[in-house]
Structures are given as structure tokens and as C-alpha cells.
Write the C-alpha cells for this entry.
Amino acid sequence: MFISGASDWGTYQNPGSFERMQEYACTDMRAVHLIEGAGHWVQQEQADMTSELILEFLKDLS
């Protein structure tokens, strides 16, 4: 799973890198979340949403 702030410039720094990561670097990518209202420090800027997504992901694994 990939979680990032929608305003994190790193996700868009190199055009196409984000898509290549999903196709080649992480071949078992199960979820991608770009959280609105957050930048690079998504876990601090949107802590509740980040925690909710992680807990949901872990619950789906069991």
C-alpha cells in the first residue's frame, strides 16, 4: 500500500515515476491513497485518515 499527501511534490517530481513504481517496483501494489489536505508529512497532517487506511489495510489481510 502507498499513502501520500496529494500535495506532496515528491509523488510528481519525475513525471511517470509514480506510475512506474506501481507497475514495476511494487508488483504487489494493493492500494494507492493520495490524501487531500496533506503534503509530505501525511502521517502528521492527516493522522486520523492515515491511521484509518492502515488499519483497514491490515484488517483486509486477515
